[in-house]
Amino acid sequence: MKRNALPHVVIVGAGFAGLQVAKRLDRSGLVVTVVDRCNHHLFQPLLYQVATAGLSPADITSPIRSLLQDKKNTTVLLAEVIGVDLQQRQVHLKGEDSISYDYLVLATGARHSYFGQDQWEAQAPGLKSITDAINIRRRILLAFEAAEKESDPEKQCAWLNFVIVGAGPTGVELAGSIAELARRVLARDFRHINPQLARVVLLEGGAEILASFPQQLRDKAEASLNHLGVEIFKNSLVTHIDDCGVRIGEQPIAAKTVIWAAGVMASPVGRWLGVETDAQGRVPVRDDLTIAGDDRVFVIGDVARLADASGQPLPGVAPVAMQQGVYVARQLHARIHGKRLTTPFRYLNRGNLATIGRSAAIADLGWLRLSGFVAWVVWMAVHIFFLIGFRNRFLVFFQWAWAYFTFQRGARLITPRES
User: Fold this and answer.
1) Contact 133, 51 (CB under 8 A)
2) 220 inside domain
3) Could you tell me which residues come within 8 angstroms of residue 339 by beta carbon, excluding any fewer than 6 positions away?
4) Which one of the listed residues 80, 96, 173, 231 is annotated catalytic?
5) Are 248 and 271 part of one and the same domain?
6) Residue 31 lies in domain
7) Does one domain contain both 97 and 131?
8) Same domain, yes or no, for 90 and 203?
9) Do the strands 294-299 and 231-233 form a parallel or antiparallel pair, or are they unpaired?
């Protein structure tokens, strides 16, 4: 594609970070192209609810073209990026096409990491996309169906065992939601099994669950999980996963459903740029979010490594990505007018939230720490506020209200596996 007369910004990825940049470059004197291999923006914090039949995929997604339809300077391309040429300032697309840029913003997100054991993915899928969520939902619901048909008690038990590897926010939210699904939603739906006897096991390789939260809130979360019947194993490193279950050291746990929530790996931006990355594949960036040696290339979101004031890398969470997107848009506005922001990027941490189940959550707001029902209400309000679009906010609020008063989930759809 040819260069434009006006400066051309190419944004790769329309997640939280990339979308924030694109939405703030309207009337900026820039031509903007947004490239993503999916046609929708995904609200990842609620992805686990799709995986556990609480919400439908459409409730937490919005078409990228619709979100940017009022940005007359912006073009959206459905394409997959396979490389970047820094010398020629070109982004290479799958299919031998390329796009020239004046400024490049790379915000391609991350996938799950199996710490060198990629063969485990077939038995223990991770949760990073709508496709992942639908696949996990299928596995969970089919496990109950298979148990209903199974006459062998030992095999039936394996179908009713659910193991989640990793006890960060995603793992904890999955464990609590699966436990609620089994003990409340499906409790009266079957005739030959008792779903309430399902075993939900949460494995954590470290000493604590939800390690980023204060001890007081970790204890509250653990108590809530125990109340739901979730079994928590700490200091438990997984040594093997197959279609029979998992092993912790030499201890086997029979389970037909294993879900991976233990680690993430950045998309291959470092390889595209030919730069060194950290162990998670993140690209080191300067305090203005550009890469060393090229101030026209910004790397933001889950693919960027930048330390906070204490020297710790910023977490790969939505608020970090959104704030970085806003900052980069301001940088680009300034550069068009011949200026440059001298203020470095600083992440303002407004707090951490995690939900454990119905009426139970924890909230670390820095100046205030909440747990239980009040934290759950705060968690709901924050997530509904940040959902994009009135339709999604209304639908999610209605689904949550329905589930709260009826103990039912309306998205229990078993879809066929993609061929």
Assistant:
1) yes
2) yes
3) none
4) 173
5) no
6) 8-37+79-112+265-336
7) no
8) no
9) unpaired
β-partners of residue 9 are: 32, 103
Mean pLDDT in residue range 280-309: 94
Per residue in 39-90, pLDDT (tens digit) is 999 999 999 999 999 889 989 999 999 999 999 999 999 999 999 999 999 9
Bridge partner list, 164: 202, 259
Contacts of 301 (CB under 8 A, 6+ apart): 13, 15, 16, 17, 18, 107, 108, 109, 316, 320, 321, 324, 325
pLDDT digits over 146-156, tens only? 999 999 999 99
Q: In whole angstroms, how large is the CA radius of gyration of the chain?
A: 22
Number of domains, the chain: 2
- The pair phi, psi for residue 14, each rounded to 5°, is -115, 40
pLDDT of 419 > 50? The answer is no
Identify whether 231 is a catalytic site residue.
no
308 located within any domain: yes
- On whether residue 42 sits in a domain, the answer given is no
pLDDT in tens, 227-259: 999 999 999 999 999 999 999 989 999 999 999
* Final residue of a structural domain among 302, 320, 336: 336
Strands (E), 262-410: 264-266, 283-284, 290-291, 294-299, 304-305, 352-357, 360-364, 369-371
Within-domain flag for 419: no
d(CA 45, CA 68): 22
Structure tokens at 170: 């995603």
The predicted pLDDT at position 228 comes to 94
Q: How many CA atoms lie within 13 A of 351 on its CB side?
A: 16
**198 and 150 both lie in a single domain:** yes
Classify burial at 233, counting beta carbons within 10 Å of its beta carbon; exposed 0-12, middle 13-18, buried 19 or more.
middle
User: For the whole model, what pTM was predicted?
Assistant: 0.91
CA 135 to chain centre: 15
The residue from 244, 262, 280 where one domain ends is 262
